[in-house]
Design goal:
216 residues, Ferritin, binds fe (ii) ion, 7 helices, globular
Length: 216
């Protein structure tokens, strides 16, 4: 392996480790945009059962954002071209807004994030690194397919949130719009369109995360 390429890979590994430590140990820069929940200043009147259910949904969504961070960073580490490497790092930075919004909403509801997040991070990072190592077009296609699934699952959550919980609804509305734009951008940048059977396999993996993070 040429020395310059070897150094580039070492730099990427160091950056990936630094990002992971910041995600779990603090020190991560705050996202760019304020939470959409902030536009609703009056706390919504929710009963305990509703709060518990919404907290479960938002815990799942927060775990999904932890996975997004890990996937993009894994893909960035092994990306073939500098263009895609930069695009993946940029995407991870943009996703930090969602991570903050979900975390903040969980705090408002008096709930914790999932204890399983380090596990999801490790699994997602590995999957991202593998996709990136196979090739840029597959890696971008993986982003598009993942974001597409995230959109659908956020829409399902949106319909379970009571209408008077305007804070959670505002967050989900913005996230649905953003994830849809991420999927479109990945395809526009040359991502492969995944066949339905592959997407079904991805749904099974994401089910494992959603069902456990809701409770733990
Ligand atoms: Fe996101
Ligand atoms: Fe996204």
């Amino acid at each position: 392996m040429p020395r310059q390429r070897q150094l580039g890979l070492i730099d990427r590994c160091i950056a990936a480790t630094d990002d992971m430590l910041k995600t779990f140990a603090g020190g991560r820069p705050k996202g760019q945009r304020p939470s959409p929940a902030d536009q609703h200043c009056v706390e919504d009147s929710l009963n305990q059962t509703e709060k518990r259910h919404i907290a479960g949904l938002m815990r799942v969504n927060h775990s999904g954002e932890v996975c997004a961070q890990a996937l993009y960073r894994g893909q960035s580490m092994t990306a073939k071209s500098d263009r895609v490497q930069q695009a993946m790092r940029q995407a991870a930075a943009e996703e930090e807004d969602h991570l903050d919004w979900c975390e903040q909403r969980l705090q408002d509801l008096g709930a914790s994030t999932s204890y399983l997040n380090p596990l999801w991070y490790g699994m997602s990072f590995s999957m991202g690194a593998l996709a990136g190592a196979i090739g840029d077009r597959l890696s971008l296609g993986f982003v598009a397919a993942t974001e597409d699934q995230v959109c659908r699952h956020l829409q399902a959550h949106y319909h379970q949130v009571p209408e008077n919980d305007r804070k959670t609804r505002a967050i989900l509305e913005q996230m649905i719009a953003d994830e849809g734009a991420h999927a479109d951008r990945a395809l526009h940048e040359g991502g492969l369109k995944f066949p339905g059977i592959v997407k079904q396999g991805m749904t099974l993996v994401s089910k494992l995360m959603t069902e456990t993070s809701y409770r733990l």
